[in-house]
Description:
By secondary structure, the chain is mainly beta.
Amino acid sequence: MQISSPVAVCAVILATAGAPTALLAEPAAPTSSGTGTILPSLSHPTIGGRFFGVENANQSWSALLLDTNLVRFELRSGDIYPNPGGFTERTEIYGPYEPTFSAYIIPGGASITLTYDFMIENGPANVAQWMVMGQWHSDYNSSIVQPVHPPFAISFFNNDKMTIQGAWARTNTTTETDITLYADPNSIQRGVFHSMKIFTIFKNDSTGVVQVWRDGVQIVNYNGPIGYGQGTYWKQGVYRYPTNQTIAVQYRNTTMTP
């Protein structure tokens, strides 16, 4: 279900897969922590002039707005977002709300350019079995039968090496085809911002497109089926398999152009 008016937003109750659903209850308002503005789960703050939704474990460190378009996410062991049946650790925002479509969810087949900078703060290398830092999430509240994985994800598997994954399926099936769009042989440099530009057309036929640039260098140029034949929405932050490790990442200057 699409969220139709962020100005009147109350809150979202999220389905197991984490998609925006109906507005029900008044969320907690952002509060100052002394070092930034705390972004509580289910709130809808303005970041860089655009509305976003928040999903986290409601800890004081989970998500901090440090500047108008700079958010710091920190994930610690046990920071489980309490969606029904959930066990994974998560601190993410989704959006931005797109006035062109009057929704957070972008219709399938739309041409979208997403840009942002991100920095993984200094610390020990990732040991999570899997960790996602940026994903195009499918609209799992749709009545369409589909696989459970995001059709696009920037992932790290037991290390600091970036992998970009894609997936597609025919409409109304759960038979998923996974695609490794990029696998970096080197660990990402921590403590510095990396610029990302992602152009997508989510269509599960030959007209789908994924193009990705990191620090001005194109690392993905894919033409072919991508997605499950329906809408998607962007999520950024940290989402991972439960792990006894603390990790922090900052995102700034997130923009989206339909």
